[in-house]
């Protein structure tokens, strides 16, 4: 049985700078780095010290509360630096890569003939487990849980998002192997959700052992959280595991090749990128190696991920662990004279208070990082609901989060949401409220108190 | 404009910054500065891009939506004055100029007093100035009788801003609509200035020289049990829709209100759910009264009833106030319906004052959180039930 779901509420933000459909490679960088800050709720403990030699697949650090949750090194080489921030917090583990990568051999296997425990063991040992995340909380999945389903969103609807139908071309075998492995981890179904608009890639359409659902509608239709909410909503105590399509391939390759192959394709997007394209890189590649010489202007915001939920990075940063996209947009810190009164033909707004509604629906905009206003108390109502296609009262949930009222948060559906689902609420907010961070605080509180 | 920005940053801003000579007036400076320039803040966490809209833009859009009512209000104030004075052939320009001279001072006093208090509170509390009063300051003049003394306007604004809003924490925290709080204050403190036969005409002689004019509004007449056909003769349906009848400054013209409603709905700022359901609620109540028809007020047909008094204005500009209305989508339908329903009910049954819109909206303002509570509670129950079924 496959479902066909049409999502009505939401908002597609049309930005300039979509990646051209061609895949480039870059010269192999000298150093790589994995950032513990990419993993929500993870307290890192180092497995490798400065000066240690590691292989591709060797653990770099693990989660303090569960030493089975390892984060593997994407390359072989020497750990050259543990970058620390305030209070000696570990910000990144840097590795000087060998010219020739040595992989740890985890052994090839046919996932479909292994038992669930064997699959789990292999994933944990190689650290590839870290690609499986759970809802609620969007943290690395707990291996002791029995998830009621596994969800894979096969498309991304965020601004300038990479096209997975394109990225996944030719990866059918690895993808199928990854699906076979994931199917062993749940007693429920593996849901693969493809974009209802247009025809999905044969990689998705031809895969066996999944329930193939069609989802169509504006962003956030591609968010896995929204899809779970419409297909099999999460109640208290229930767990659903989620994996990105490219990460399914990494899991698949672990079984097909017997090694941790951290190759993935990243879309470089945004108005400030002179020639936006896709690039084949390894996990933890320095952004400088990808972006050098490709950016226009000097005041840029480099974002790992999309413009709504990505992490702020600098030229010295590295690709994000779960991200398949880098966005570069201009910084918007110029004051606007009478900005609240000007007609605003170039402003993109969910409301029709600017004259952009006169421009054709296909026009693309060059948004910068400007706030376009100051923070205020909640005033407008009904704004968030228009861009949140869930049966959830967003403002009430945020207020419950602000009040640290766990019981109320549970009642209002905190287990079903993640920051990225609320990102559009933050985007449209007239009062410029920090919606995502308020929600994260609520999620963290519930996670600590209720597990 | 870069030159001005540079000049401000270099010569003016340091005076008000911490340690500057005029540090204590920082709030005033900040208020005016952010009015001139939307500050160049960049996002620092969460979403990297933000919608172009902010509260200033929202509020100015609402003010723009009220402009037709304001302009027509000026014209009508003049028109009613000349009618009451027995001048038969007053030109459009005469009416407008006379009206502007009556209405603009009220607007100036409203903004002056209200914004003054806003600045004062912002200074005392050290927060930046909220934009909410931009709308309230325009609403208040539009719901006053043209003949209101200016000191009363000032007093009402002060009361509304302090008691109606600031004691709760400012814009976004208030329970009652600020403009209606101002009106309710005057209504109960100075009832003779807010209703009756004398207040709707600016500077009218009322010396008995003009016999045909009683000076009451259409609803006043109806409440006084003037027969239906006579009411129709003096206040026909078309007059009420165009708005050439006595009443508060901005409320009389249904057409102007509809223009405003169109702008609010089109821009997405006003809630069409509330507007629609309040009209349905009002029409339902009138339809029920029409069945009994024991007095003139009960006899007026639905369309005519809704065109009279402040119904259209109230439903478009006051019931939709996002802070004091219900905030959930389902709640908005219930809230709107009850506002309309109660407005007509109070209109017909209240012996003291034949206009129920103000009291209906204020009453539903108080009830809105309760409506929302039950709507949200239903959502919680649904989720709990699902959890139980699964478990």
Write a compact overview of the structure shown.
By secondary structure, chain A is an alpha/beta fold. Chain A has 12 helices and 21 strands.
What's the story with the biggest beta sheet of chain B? none
CATH topology of chain B: Ammonium transporter fold
Helical content of chain B stands at 55-70%
Number of strands of chain B: 1
User: What structural category arises from helix and sheet content of chain A?
Assistant: alpha/beta
Main CATH class of chain B? Mainly Alpha
Apparent shape of chain A: globular
Summarize the main sheet of chain A.
7 strands, mixed
Give the proportion of residues in helices of chain A: 10-25%
Mean pLDDT value of chain A: 91
Largest interface: A-B, 73 and 62 residues
What does this molecule look like?
The complex is a heterodimer of chains A (451) and B (391). Chain A is built from 12 helices and 21 strands. By secondary structure, chain A is of the alpha/beta class. Chain B has a single domain (55-374), classed as Ammonium transporter fold, CATH 1.10.3430. Chain B contains 18 helices and 1 strand. In chain B, helix 12 packs parallel to helix 16 (311-318) and helix 17 packs antiparallel against helix 18 (357-390). The longest helix of chain B is centred in the N-terminal third of the chain and has 34 residues, at 92-125. Mean pLDDT of chain B is 86; it is low at 207-212. The chains are: A alpha/beta (451), B mainly alpha (391).
Please name the defining characteristics of this protein:
heterodimer; A: 451 residues; alpha/beta; Rossmann fold; OB fold (Dihydrolipoamide Acetyltransferase, E2P); Ubiquitin-like (UB roll); 4 domains; 7-stranded mixed sheet; 6-stranded mixed sheet; 22% helix; B: 391 residues; mainly alpha; Ammonium transporter fold; 66% helix; 1% strand
